[in-house]
Write a structure and sequence with these properties.
With about 260 residues, the chain is of the alpha/beta class. The protein is about 25% helix and about 25% strand. The longest helix is centred in the last third of the chain and has 12 residues, at about 240-250.
C-alpha cells in the first residue's frame, strides 16, 4: 500500500520558518515533519510514498537525494567525482530507511484535491492512505485500515479532538478553580487527516482548482461514502510557531506520543 502526503502548500501561517523552506521540511528534533509522518506509516509496514510537491519542492527532493549519504561517513574522490560510503562492518554506516519515495511536482498553485488528482498515474488503481504534511498523531494505521475495510466506503477520515488552543478555565465567581489545556468535548471533532481512500475518489476531483476538503468531501457526505474514524489519542498540527514549540518540547523530553518506532 502507498501513502500520499500533500507537501506543496505555502504554509503562510508559519512564516518564521516557511519563508525559506516548505512547511513539511520544518524540523522537529532535527528531522523534517515530513520524515516524522513517514515514520508513522513505516511503523505499520507502509513504506512506499507519493509526496505531492509544490512550494520549494526542490528542497524536499534534495533531502531525499542526499538522505543516505548524509547519514554515513564518506570519502569523496574529487578527481573522480566518486563518493565512497564506508563499510558497514567498520561500524560507521547508519541504517537507512527501506522506503520507496516518489517525489512528484504537482504545481505551485494547485489545490489539495488537484494534487491528489495529479498523482493518479502513481497510485496503481489501489486503496491508498493520504494525509497532510503538517500533522502527527499516534493513530494506529492498522486499526484505521481495518475500520475502512469493514465499512466498505470510498473514504475514511481520521477525526480528532485536539486540546483547546487557548486552554480551559473553570471559575467560581471571580476565582479560577482550574487552569489547564484539555481536549475539546461535544462537537469538537475536526478533520485530522490520515485518510484511507479508494481509487474511485479521483472521480470526485475535477482538476487543479479543487480543494479536497470542500467539493469532494462534501459530495461524499451527500452520497454517504465518507466515514469517520474517531481517534481519541494524540493529534497535533503545526500551524503556528507555538505548535512547533510544543512538538519540539515533546520530542526533546522523550514524550512524543507519535514516536512508535
Amino acid at each position: 500500500m502507498q501513502a500520499v502526503i500533500l507537501a506543496g502548500g505555502l504554509g503562510s501561517r508559519l512564516q518564521e520558518e516557511t519563508s525559506v523552506k516548505p512547511k513539511p521540511m520544518v524540523e522537529i528534533g532535527g528531522r523534517p515533519m515530513l520524515w516524522h509522518i513517514m515514520k508513522i506509516y513505516a511503523t505499520y509496514g507502509i513504506k512506499e510514498f507519493c509526496v505531492a510537491l509544490g512550494y520549494k519542492g526542490e528542497l524536499i527532493k534534495n533531502f531525499f537525494l542526499n538522505y543516505y549519504h548524509l547519514q554515513n561517513d564518506l570519502t569523496v574522490h574529487l578527481d573522480q567525482g566518486r563518493v565512497e560510503v564506508h563499510d558497514e562492518a567498520a561500524g560507521h554506516t547508519q541504517p537507512s530507511e527501506d522506503w520507496k519515495v516518489h517525489l512528484v511536482d504537482t504545481g505551485l498553485g494547485t489545490q489539495t484535491g488537484g494534487r491528489i488528482k495529479r498523482l493518479a498515474p502513481w497510485l496503481r488503481d489501489q486503496t491508498f492512505c493520504m494525509t497532510y504534511g503538517d500533522g502527527v498523531a499516534d493513530v494506529n494505521i492498522s486499526r484505521l485500515l481495518e475500520f475502512h475495510k469493514a465499512h466498505g466506503k470510498l473514504a475514511t477520515v481520521t477525526v480528532a479532538r485536539p486540546p483547546a488552543r487557548f486552554g480551559s478555565l473553570q471559575f467560581e465567581g471571580d476565582r479560577i478553580l482550574d487552569f489547564s489545556e484539555k481536549p475539546q468535548t461535544g462537537e469538537g471533532w475536526i478533520n485530522g487527516g490520515f485518510f484511507i481512500l479508494e481509487p474511485g475518489i479521483l472521480d470526485y476531483i475535477e482538476g487543479d482548482e479543487t480543494d479536497f476538503s470542500s467539493g469532494p468531501l462534501e459530495k461524499l457526505v451527500e452520497e454517504q461514502q465518507l466515514v469517520a474514524y474517531k481517534h481519541e489519542g494524540f493529534w497535533q498540527c503545526m500551524d503556528t510557531l507555538r505548535d512547533l514549540q510544543l512538538l519540539e518540547n515533546l520530542w526533546h523530553t522523550g514524550k512524543a506520543p507519535w514516536k512508535k518506532w
